[in-house]
Write the structure tokens for this entry.
Amino acid sequence: MDDDKFLPKLSQNLLKILDDDEYYDITIEVGNDPYVKVFRAHMVILNYRSNYLRRILSTNKKKNDEILVHIKLPNILPEIFQIILRYIYGGRLSLKECDTPDIIKILIAANELNLQELVSYLQLYIIKNNKNWMEQNFNFVYQTSFENDSFLELQNYCTDLISKGPDKILKSMNFSSIPEKLLISIVQNNNLQMSEIQVWKYVIKWGLTQNPELPTDPANFSKEDFNVLKNTLQQLIPFIKFSNISSREFSEEVLPYKKILPKEFYKDLLKKFLNLHPDSKLTDNLKNIDSEIITFQHIELISKWIDKLDITDKSTFLHEFKLILRGTRDGFESNKFHEICDNRSCTVTIIKVKGNNQILGGYNPIEWKSDRNYDATKDSFIFSFKNGDDINEHILSRIVKRNYAIFNDHTYGPSFGVADLILRGDSGHCVKDSYEKPIRSAPSEPHLHYGIKCDCCNYTVRGIRWRCTSCEDYDLCQDCKPKSEIHCHPDDHAFQPKPHSSTSSRAPQFAVHHGIVCDNCNKTIHGMRWKCTFCQNYDLCQDCKSNIHDHPNNHMFQPFAYPSIDNYNSGSDYLHPAFCDYCESICFFGKCHKCANGEFSVEEYELFQSIVAEGFLIGKYTRESAAALKPESRGVAVYIFSSFVNYVALNWAQQKPEITSPNWR
């Protein structure tokens, strides 16, 4: 018998003690006039459940002539303490009737009482269930989170939110009320998706709002005005990355405020921007990408892959990105892709998988065509980000079969390898063949308990299966288990984790495609089935596909590891039709033909073209021809990557007189 079987009953009994009017030995006065309430409690429980209350009790010992100990908690509201007291006694917390501000009050009170377990839980609960409210009330959330070092989860969430959407957050806030600590954290964030000149403008704006008596135009500043602004911003200026500001931006936006900069620091900056060294001018175009899928952190990493650099290497090039095609805007049809992208080289395809946060993509250094052929290259690669918000969880897969690097066909979208990353309309599939490693796989079967439905959400249980020890047939998935306010199962019922059954995910070691005969050897296909995508009914087995067959070399084959439902044979020992919990259709062994073969649906996809500056562009496009692209030519989520070399600097006007604007976009 498990040790925790009796815990629910114990919790229930302890909660009843709260209503005891005979054996209590302490009274707690909570709140301030006129909202004060006195609670009865038991010192032994408070002493072992809260370090803070233990210290209070040690300094408020009962005197000889007193019957009860009496303490005061004026900083906590009575209704908030009522919730916390139930947690202290019974280890239970019901938040279903609480709105977000009340939950934050509970968090603050729990922190005051040093209930660290509750503090951690409440932070994660707020982040998971109240994201929209937090964005709308970001200033309040931020100030609350940084008022105490215990709110680390909230602090990390706020910092991450700032880095991903600083402009949105700053515009939604009362700018004058932003604390200096918050602004410093924004300015020094290396992952901030905002150009440095925008950061500078926000810093100046904040300084002016702190001193409303100052003129809005620095031309009207007195010496004293500059000193006031300098003192206000002295903690912020050291964190501004002036090296990422162009000379023009420095001249137009920074110089008018030069008197707020330390003298020696200003002299060093002036030397930098007057120096004709190639690195004297940088651009922030990389951070201003117009994408619905990726951020500039993704672009930095992809750019390094294009240049064949390690992720720790410093990039030689900076990049500018211009959208030319987006699926949700221009359509997912293959003919639209070829209409816009044929004859374009050095493109990067970005795909957001429908139903999760996964990102797939590939780089094609050569031109797209519509000639139903494979094209060779040694520089293409495909990649994936398991979680689009985390660039660290990525897979990079470079080409190994060069002759099959890129597949061109007017009925397909961007396609890499024989089957490694294939797009057709708003669907695609990934099966390793021509590239060094797979970038995507279907969910692993052992993580699903086939035939076991969660009695809360009614989906097949994934991960840990929680079985009620009191009910005959009641199960919860790991997502619903902690949501007592949703599943409403009796509080005194205990749950046990049940191991996954190996018999519930039985799958063939060597699948038989019944009714499918190899058109080369005339045998029923076992294992991988290769179906020609050009011919109506032509299939090869794995052996014939790898060896000699007389089918045209330019015909593309799609691999199928699992049999199709159309080939189901009730007498087969291998095939057992069931309901697929991934795509919710009839399939085999709990994972369907579609899911088993790496297929996915596309929510959005984008494509970029990479261009190197100074008139020497990658591929056949020149700086001038790229500039002449018409806006209406933009098209399935395709982006142009305009890769600009760092040495687009101040000396261009002398060295390249035909190029009049080093800031060409």
About this structure: The chain has five domains: 7-158, 195-274, 285-434+600-645, 445-496, 512-597.
